[in-house]
Amino acid sequence: MSETRWLTAPQQRDWRAFVDGSVRLLDVLDQSLKTTHGLSMAEYEILVRLSEAPDRKLRMAQLAAEASQSRSRLSHTCARLESKGLVRRETCPSDKRGVLAYLTDEGFATLERASHDHVTSVRDYFVDVVDATDLEAIGRAFNAIIRRVDSSR
Amino acid sequence: MSETRWLTAPQQRDWRAFVDGSVRLLDVLDQSLKTTHGLSMAEYEILVRLSEAPDRKLRMAQLAAEASQSRSRLSHTCARLESKGLVRRETCPSDKRGVLAYLTDEGFATLERASHDHVTSVRDYFVDVVDATDLEAIGRAFNAIIRRVDSSR
DNA sequence: CGAACACTGTTGAAGGTTCAACTATTCCGG
DNA sequence: CCGGAATAGTTGAACCTTCAACAGTGTTCG
Q: Which of chain B's residues 78-117 bind strand C, using a 7 Å CB cutoff?
């Protein structure tokens, strides 16, 4: 049993700034996506990943991994997106257990509209508020975190 | 109507690293708090703020602001914490509209236990994974974001 | 004073997420 | 090629958050 290594005061300040700031930031972005385009950030993320995939198609499991969602959550969310006509699903020909989700034309059009406003919000509340060098630091740091989290699963 | 200013490729990489990384990081921490102490991070945050307040008491509105939660959400969450015996509420003597939430001894004890593990996770997945200078950059950046978000409300 | 307004916090319903259980398919060792 | 283990995705219930409406209290100003 080793002693708990508490955070130093500056570490604690930085950590809290991150927790508070990210919650508020993601809240604002979610809010604005939802009111102007009826999409949550989670849904938006799904549309983005599909739009970038070859044929706009992805296996559910891969989509879940890329969007940092559980499979269950993705199932529910896809069901909603499907009922809005933005996404459709078909069984995977090569592996009949699998399912391919793909973006409809309407989904693509919705994404295109939403992305303009979204990117503007991201600038307004994030990119343009942060120093260029600090932005790079954030990129480095969170890539390291992603590696760390993924390696422990 | 001005043209949409898209992100540059590096900006987009950094932004995505942040979104993915923070979601995964907060997920892991939430997970570990929940399985080992039965608390969500939102609940934990509430206990922390109360523990630091004078007399371990805070007005609901202030608590909501400090924990970055909506008042409604806080009401529900406090109700849950209250039924677990960790928090209690009383009407504010100076303003009868108001309510003071306060930490019970049991709440304090629970927080104390949980904080050891939590701080260890924060180190494991965040502080110790990120360069010291990048950590400072994160602190600066997210404080700027907090100011930005709060100024638009 | 008292009427209109603003503010505090709660409530219930609707919507979204998590959790555990389940079906169906594929993989693998014997 | 068979039986068991592993994998893919879905489902429904429990849980949590959001949303809009509300009750109660304070504040302002004619």
A: 78-79, 89, 92, 95, 97-99
Predicted pLDDT of residue B1: 62
What does the alpha-carbon distance between residue B121 and residue A12 come to, in Å, rounded to a whole number? 13
- pTM of the complete model: 0.95
Q: Kindly report, residue by residue over A81-112, the tens digit of the pLDDT.
A: 999 999 999 999 999 999 999 999 999 999 99
SS3 at position A99: strand
Q: For residue A11, what is the enclosing H or E element? A: helix A9-37
Which strand (E) or helix (H) includes residue A87? strand A87-91
CA distance A98 to A75: 12
Residue B120 contacts A, CB cutoff 8 Å: yes
Contacts 24+ apart (CB under 8 A), B100-107: B100/B57, B100/B58, B100/B59, B100/B60, B101/B46, B101/B50, B101/B57, B101/B58, B101/B59, B101/B60, B101/B63, B102/B50, B102/B55, B102/B56, B102/B57, B102/B58, B103/B47, B103/B50, B103/B51, B103/B56, B107/B47, B107/B50, B107/B81
Q: Where on the phi/psi map is residue B104: left (φ > 0), alpha (ψ -120 to 50), or beta?
A: beta
Q: Is the pLDDT of residue B3 over 90?
A: no
Using one digit for the tens of pLDDT, what is the confidence trace for B52-109? 999 999 999 999 999 999 999 999 999 999 999 999 999 999 999 999 999 999 999 9
Q: Which residues of chain A does B18 touch, with a Cβ-Cβ cutoff of 8 Å?
A: 22, 126, 138-139, 142
Residues whose CB falls within 8 Å of the CB of residue B121, separated by 6 or more in sequence, listed in order: B28, B29, B32, B33
CA A99/CA A89 separation, integer angstroms: 7
Tens digit of pLDDT for each residue in A48-66? Answer: 999 999 999 999 999 999 9
